[in-house]
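Recap quiz, item 2
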Amino acid sequence: MIFSELYNVYYNAVAKILAEAVAGTLDEKRLNEIVEQAAFGESFLTILPALKAQKWQLLHADRSTPLRHSPTMPLTELEKRWLKAISLDRRIQLFDLDFSGLEAVEPLFTEEDYIIYDQCNDGDPYEDAEYIAHFRLVLDAIRNRYPLHMVIQNRHGVPVTMNVLPEALEYSEKDDKFRVIARSTGAAVINVARIRSCERYRGGRLRVSAREPQMRTLVFDVTDERNALERTMLHFAHFEKQTERIGENLYRVTLHYNREDETELVIRILSFGPKIRVVAPESFIQLIKERLKRQKSCDL
Amino acid sequence: MAYSELIKNFDRVRDYMRDFYVYGFKSRSEYDKKSARSYDDERRRMESWLGDYMGFRQTEDGKHVFLSIDSRLSRHNPLFRAWKTKSFTDGDITLHFILFDILSDPDVEMTVGELCDAIHDDYLSGFDEPMSFDESTVRKKLKEYTGEGILSARRIGRSVYYSRVPDAELECTDALNFFSEVAPCGVIGSFLLDKVAPEDEIFSFKHHYITQTLDSGILCALFDAMHRKAAVTVQNISQRTKECKEFRLVPLRILISVQNGRQHLLAFHIDKGCLMTLRVDYIRSVEIGEAFPEYDSLRKWGNRIQAHLWGVSAHKKRSTLEHIEFTVCYEEDEQHIPLRLEREKRCGKVERIDARHARFTADVSDSNELLPWMRTFICRITALQMTNRAVEETFRKDLEDLYRLYEIDGGDDG
């Protein structure tokens, strides 16, 4: 069962407390720190009194414990079945893993059981040995914070050399692609599939600049017809946003987006047709108007 | 009952969390189906679980609570926390840690009686007012843990011996960080991550719909039913009437969208003898029944139908497919346009007519589902033909409405 106390943050926090008690390192300060770090905002109101009042008989008044071992729990069947399921995912090849021990476990799901029906069909080549090697090197460079020397193929098919300090791997579920978010002489976002060669940078001190996302704010009104409100709210759910009701069946959404995603956001707004009307900023409205004018000139 | 940060039942929080995150404009008085006390408790819980992400806005209608999360910046789904809030008793947690301390190694095997003696003599007797666990309580807990797969039971003669199953080494933090965010029921990956030492988080996610995790319990049950090739009885809230209806179904596949945040169940409706789709977030409960004899052939049928689905609309009993074709124009240095058509064509076809025009064609069950995607090509659609004339008319009318909305008149701003 997925909703079980076995996965409760209180159990995890108490396991950490007991581990320190077994090791003899638990003091009042650590007790408070563990609850603060491992549980929720108000958890200290429950966990600490329950342990101290011996409602949970795991800790004596002197913070010693009758337990003899640092607490551990084997994997549940559900956890094993999920692990087995991801071991069958084609993207698992990106990670050098050994799933022995799960041979007899039935997967929770297989690729037969679900389909992502609106994903782009030119996703990254997860079976390609060169791609996998590049992916793993980037992963290692991020983990160990060292720069890379890369040759990438730009969008015009031209090879470009770059020295970068990778900071994260961004995965787009829609595009089914990984991109390296890196610092370079400027901001760099590199499709892993476009990397032609990649090695540890061995040159002199690499000067890189900080990469700050240019955030912008979009304000639009939604007319709630044909279930447009629900569709809009779900569609744009992954943005930081606020919504308010401003009239009968009329809602105003204020959404924050990264400047580099502006073109994509324009077409996503247009996909809702007249149910969405952008009210600010003026520059965004102009982008919509330009497209509409061009469409009108198509004489459809 | 006194307020607790933990909850017994996930259903209510599933609704509130979705409302706060997806909508976020409702005031306290609009949560009319539940009592004001209940609203206050749920809001307080969520503030405790997700404090950093909670926002408040005061208007003349009252206080509006919302959850605002940029899923591109947040490297772990904050909503996973809701799944880690199941309430328990004082006895549950005490027994849990003591049992696994006694059964510290897979080689240690004990009967219920032996365990009860050890619990009292070796663990609880040192407390001023020791708790007491009778054999039936301990046996119930052992049975529960055996069902969860964390203990094993072995019968020798008339006695049952319990031991822990071997621990597994988890050396896959990167994979867990990734798949917990992108795989179905990813919250289970988050449970696994809770067992390992935290490391720097390397992955970030774009186009990431985090509310789907709230449906993980339903999804888990549906996957389990598919695995057993079994029928299910589901309680479903009607999108239109908001009434709860019961359906007897054979679950065939989960259809997941990475562009609109929805998940649907494609299923065979046993009583009506047709295929249907249901929004997973509208399903209240799933009860797994008996294995369904024709499961494999139904799944093949579902796959054939699905080959002509643009999205999820499979409930219409139409035998004919709807044809759609439209042409887009582009400049010679705008090759990303025909490439986008190719990347996003799904069951359609793309044909390059000349150096500046490409035609998209498809035969689908419900052409209405293509409209949002077609609108993303506004500014370059030069021809359009649909056999479903009503749908074509909707597209053309929406375009006219857009011109009016943005005061586009003959190419000049109004």
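DSSP finds eight helices and ten strands in chain A.
The two ends of chain A are 55 Å apart (CA to CA).
End of item.
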